[in-house]
Write a structure and sequence with these properties.
The complex is a heterodimer of chains A (397) and B (225). Chain A has helices at 3-11, 15-50, 76-85, 144-150, 199-206, 227-237, 246-256, 258-289, 291-299, 304-341, 358-384, 388-396, and strands spanning 57-61, 73-74, 89-104, 107-116, 124-129, 139-142, 157-165, 170-185, 194-198, 213-214, 216-221, 241-245. Chain A has 397 residues and is an alpha+beta fold. The chains are: A alpha+beta (397), B alpha/beta (225).
């Protein structure tokens, strides 16, 4: 019989105690797993989100991140022309974001408007109807929440207002647009009412005076391996713009969410400590209960190494069973927690805090196995050092 | 002249108790030859179990020496002594001390597995030994499913697993009723008849009468041999 099978059988001698310990280990392992997924998942999810349409570089006003402020770029057409001449660049498109207002009966509904260039857009996927074409200055695309609040569907006409004066609630400009299609905006938070028009239409709705403005420019590089090199070239070419690759943006994002990472490290460490204490306590109690048995084994010639191996096998059996339960529990709780966290305002609905990754999961598994080994150290030492004769004498009385 | 299996010379064993030394053995010398069936008897606390533990290398004498087949036990490292107990000595305890999670066969196989015997060989040997003690049909029962007498017979089979030079038994009938104790006596009788060397510590007069030699102990000394 293998040491592990023997360990499992030994644990089965006290089923209730073992079950309670396994439950404790499973909860701690689930917590560790969730924290590991949280610490690495945010980065991965954010990178996936930014790359969802294949655009690897963003240009925004100096000192800002995309859509971080209301600052905008001027001379967008010239920037785009330069970019589109670069042979390393496959596509480049400008995006202008602005608050717009739709009129329904007696009230104004605020929606978020994106001005895009349909031939190079990084924001949405069409779910119904048709996409815009570059010359379509009277067409508009709606997200599902926008369609709901505006009470409009594909083929309907809606009125949108821009440049609202909050003092007198009077719009500076209004425009009637025809809904061409329904889209899913990848960066929208849950329930966000958003619309998209071609850039020129949005520029007229959002800005007075200088029309050639955009919030950011997105760039798709032909060769993924060349992204950082192209980004560095763009920084030199446009010193008055902020140029960020996806890796740069993930880095900025990571800095902002450093507390999440710290929280996950602290809670993950605590769950490991709890796991160590649980296993060590259970094994110590078990070893103390079985000192007579251990002394007998030693008396009949079983080596200390075998005894130690046996204690470790029980610890390993506990951690394997507990971790298996913990993984299931961790995945369920991660889904639940993710649903809560992504419902916070301002977070893209497609964003995920808990992303199971093979490397982080295997790292967590390894850490758990090591935890089992550490937890078995003291009980194993206790078992190996049990005095044979004295224990047998005590057993006999 | 018969071959000496175990030789004890001037064995002394003191235990500290409340700051004072309790003299469990006060200079015991004993020679046990191959094929002997020795019963060590005496009142409680006379030192007979301590003597057995020293003879079996599971305790260390305060002074004196024990030789097993010419090897002085006090010259061996812990690892060597453990190996010697595994391969040259067989132990039977009053409380059987079988592993409850293992079957009778697995309990018997345990010392053989530790000695490195391959699974088919140890399985066959375990079967043979369980048949010898009359438990061939109970081989796959867990220890907890066996009666006291059956457990002790499994413990005897386990003690014989690696063909020891001598079998040491400490009150082997102490936990058994008279009828079940008789079964154990019968097994010991048969073992000795088949050539095994036995040293049995006992209170049981029946068991002592079965032995070919009786060593009486009193106050840590051999009173009569």
């Amino acid at each position: 019989m293998s040491a592990l099978a023997w360990g499992v059988k030994s644990l089965a001698r006290r089923p209730l105690r073992t079950a309670l310990s396994l439950a404790g280990i499973a909860v701690a392992a689930a917590m560790l797993l969730d924290m590991v997924m949280l610490s690495g998942g945010i980065d991965q999810s954010f990178a996936q989100l930014l790359l969802s349409r294949g655009y690897q570089i963003r240009l925004s006003p100096k000192g800002t991140l995309p859509f971080d402020t209301e600052a905008s770029l001027s001379g967008t057409s010239a920037i785009l022309a330069t970019l589109r001449h670069d042979p390393a660049i496959e596509a480049a498109g400008a995006v202008l974001g602005a608050s717009l207002y739709g009129r329904t009966r007696d009230s104004l509904i605020t929606v978020f408007g994106y001005g895009i260039q349909p031939e190079a857009q990084a924001l949405y996927q069409v779910t119904a109807g048709k996409d815009l074409v570059p010359e379509d200055t009277v067409g508009i695309l709606l997200s599902d929440p926008a369609a709901r609040v505006l009470g409009a569907g594909v083929g309907d006409s809606i009125s949108l207002l821009g440049r609202l004066d909050p003092q007198v609630a009077v719009a500076g400009v209004g425009r009637r647009l025809v809904v061409r299609g329904m889209v899913h905006f990848v960066y929208d938070y849950r329930g966000q009412p958003s619309v998209a028009t071609v850039l020129a239409a949005m520029q007229r709705l959002a800005h007075d005076g200088i029309q050639d403005r955009a919030s950011l420019v997105v760039v798709k590089v032909r060769d993924n391996q060349a992204v950082e090199r192209v980004a560095a070239g763009l920084r030199q070419r446009f010193p008055r713009l902020e140029v960020n690759s996806v890796a740069d943006l993930v880095g900025h994002f990571r800095e902002r969410l450093v507390y999440f990472r710290q929280l996950s490290y602290i809670l993950g460490s605590m769950s490991l400590v709890v796991t160590v204490l649980l296993i060590a306590t259970l094994l110590t109690i078990t070893v103390n209960e079985r000192l007579g048995e251990i002394a007998t084994l030693r008396a009949i010639g079983v080596s200390r190494a075998t005894i130690v191996r046996q204690v470790f096998a029980e610890g390993t059996a506990l951690i394997l069973l507990g971790a298996t339960l913990g993984i299931l529990l961790g995945l369920v709780t991660a889904r639940y927690l993710d649903a809560i966290l992504t419902s916070f305002p301002g977070l893209p609905a497609t964003f995920s805090f808990f992303v199971p990754r093979a490397d982080t999961l295997s790292r967590a598994g390894l850490v758990l196995v090591l935890t089992g080994a550490v937890a078995g150290l003291y009980p194993a030492w206790l078992a190996a050092r049990a005095p044979i004769a004295a224990t047998l004498r005590a057993e006999a009385t | 002249m018969s071959e000496a299996v175990l030789v004890a010379r001037e064995l002394r064993k003191d235990y500290p108790m409340n700051g004072e030394a309790v003299h469990a053995l006060r200079g015991v010398s004993l020679r046990i030859d191959r094929g002997e069936y020795v019963a060590i008897v005496g009142p409680s606390g006379c030192g007979k179990s301590t003597l057995l533990q020293l003879l079996g290398g599971i305790d260390v004498a305060t002074s004196g020496s024990v030789e097993l087949l010419g090897t002085r036990l006090d010259t061996l490292s812990d690892r060597e002594l453990t190996r010697l107990r595994l391969t040259r000595l067989g132990f039977v305890f009053q409380r059987f001390h079988l592993l409850p999670v293992l079957s009778a066969r697995e309990n018997v196989e345990l010392p053989m597995a530790e000695a490195g015997l391959r699974p088919p060989e140890r399985r066959a040997r375990a079967r043979e030994l369980l048949d010898y003690v009359g438990l061939g049909s109970r081989a796959d029962h867990r220890a907890t499913q066996l009666s006291g007498g059956e457990m002790q017979r499994v413990a005897i089979a386990r003690a014989l697993a690696n063909r020891p030079a001598v079998l040491l038994a400490d009150e082997p009938t102490g936990e058994l009723d008279a009828a079940t104790g008789q079964e154990i006596l019968e097994v010991f009788r048969r073992l000795n008849r088949d050539g095994s060397t036995l040293v049995v510590v006992t209170h049981d007069d029946h068991l002592a009468r079965e032995a070919t030699r009786v060593v009486h102990m009193l106050d840590g000394r051999i009173r009569d041999d």
